[in-house]
Structures are given as C-alpha cells and as structure tokens.
Amino acid sequence: MDITQFEDIRPYSDSELPGAIAALMEDEAFVSLLAKYVPDMDFGSVERLLDGVSCTTDFQLKFMFPVLKRVINGLCTELTVSGHENMRTPSLYMSNHRDIVIDPSFLCMTLVDNGLDTCEIGIGDNLLSTPWVRSLVRINKCFIVKRGLTTRETVRAFAQLSSYIRYAVTEKRTSLWIAQREGRAKDADDRTQDSIVKMFALSGSGSLAESLAPLNITPVSISYEYDPCDYLKAVELQQRRDNPAFRKGKDDDMRSMQTGILGYKGRVHYAYTPCINAALPRIVQEHHGDRKGQIRAVCELCDRQIFAAYRIYPVNIVAYGLLSGDRRFSSRCTAGELRTAADYLDSRLAKVDIGDRDDEFLRRKLLEMYANPLINKLSVAGDI
After folding, report:
1. pLDDT band at residue 12 using 50, 70 and 90 as cut-offs
2. Among the four 76, 187, 289, 341, which has the fewest Cβ within 10 Å?
3. Where are the extended beta strands (E) located within 2-100?
C-alpha cells in the first residue's frame, strides 16, 4: 500500500515529533492557553518534560494525560469501566459521542489502565481552525476526518479515510477510535450512521462480513451523568428550528470544545461491548443480496449493544419521568437524588442566553437529551 496517500490525514510519525513539538512550544496562542488552564505547570517544566518525548505514546502519557487530569480535576467524580474482556489490540472502537476531547481521551486512559497502548483518534477538521490545534492533535495520535466537502470530494475523502483505517488496524496493528456518526447527537438519541459503516467497508473486498471483519469493530457505550454542553445543544436546536439555514461558526465550535472539557460531568462510565465479528456472517445471510440492508443491520447491531450497556443515572430517570409521565423508576433513587437532578435541569435552562428564547421548546430538548438514553436502553433491555 502506498502510505503517502495519507500524508494530509495521518498522525505525525515518531520521527516528526521533535520538529512538531518545537514548533508547538513556540506558538504564543498555545503557550498562553496552557498558562491559563494549567497555571501550576510552568513553561520550563513543560519544555524539560517534552525534551524526553521519543514517541507519540510518550507524548500522551507524559504530557497530555497529566494536563488533562489537571484540567478535569474536580469536574468528574468517577470514571468507571466494564467489559474489560472486550478490550483487545488492534480494534476499531466505535462509540456514541458526547465530547470530541473527553470521549477519546478517557477511552485512551482506560486502555492504558488495562495494560494496552493508547489508540489513534478520529477528529473532524471543522475543529482544527488554528495551526497549533491541528499540530497538537496530530502529535496526539489523531487522524483527520474531512468535513464540509462537495459530493465528489466526499467520495474521495471517504475512500482515503477507509483505506487509512484499514491500514492502521491491519498493518500498523494499532487500535483506533471513531464516533458512530458525524457530529454529536444533539438529543442524545445515539444512532450509528449508515455512511460510517459504508465508509469502513469501502476499502475492503468480498462480502460485507469479509470486508468488515479485519477491522474488529468494537462498539463502546459512553455514559456521562451530566453533559456540560447540554444547554448549548438546546440553543443550537432552537436556532436551527427558527432558521433552517443556521450554521455554527468556528467560535461556536471552540466554545463547545472548551465547555466540554471544563464543564462538570459527574460520573462517567465506559462499557466495552463485544466485537461484532461473530454476528457478521448471520447478517449477510439474513440480508442476502441486499448490501444496503446488511449495512443497516450492522448499524442496528452496534446501536443495540451501545443502548444495552448505558449506565443510567438519576438525571436520566427524572428527565424520563417529566417527559413521559412514567415515573416507575423513581423508586430506584433517593428523594435527595431526585431533587438534585430536577434542580440541575432547571439550572441548565437558566444558562440559556439568546433572544426570543422559547422556554417550552428548550426545556423539552433538555429533557430529551437526558431521557433518550433511558428510552433507548428500555427498547433493547426492557429494564435498567
């Protein structure tokens, strides 16, 4: 395989690290941001630390993880993991999506804690608005997903991305993380996009099962007790409703990224579910001759595994009760937990700051964000 075709989307190689890190440390915007959010880490200690970095995993373990832990200290009360037996290298970890920085960062931490290497991370180029951000993510094992393209450009970009993913898993023997859809589900109704699975298969050959099996697709279910960006998502949903032509600007993306990192998340749970390989032959057989039906069935399988593994918190139960009128699960929580969850939802609505705010619409969207994980879990598990 000609790996030069991946030059504009691949992470930096170990040999490129010294130059990339040196350029990053000379970027005033990056240094200023580091000083603002990690004030206890002085510039001299950062330089000495990075002098000893020899590979991308080193950079993550010595720099990114300590910085991230400093930033999120107190913003996450616990990080728990289940499904350890489903962690293996190499895998293509595909998860539901809440935050582009925290989702894969926590995933990498859980892999390292279980004796595995960190994984490469798929990130949309819409979030790489400044040179230092683009450089930082490529140092940090990120591969780039091109967005906002014409139809013809999208076809080429998908083919390139599919080939890179296959190369990384089957030849580099490294694990990767990618979200199950383009962008976050604003209402937390997490559904795998057909186009994502279709993209995975583009670079393969034979049946869909033969094409996908070498990638070892492993769905990961991520549950945040609180989503720091919930009120921002509600605002965006109203803006899109009121103006179908509305598009977020670069500043909006950066604000969401910052809020997602620095906002309170409460409890967070990662559930690694089984690799889908065992089910692929059955899916191909059941939808014989119907490639579109096979792809849809693969998406639905991934969704069922993610839904069943959700961790449900009191805020999900309260939102579900307020939205549906069904309060059968309230007895699973203490009176204090129910009150705290209800107060939290009210406080998020109070943070909305836009003209012509539609409180009824905004409240319903906030409730949907927290109720949908429970609704989807019930659809496959029947209980919580």
Report:
1. very high
2. 289
3. 76-82, 92-95
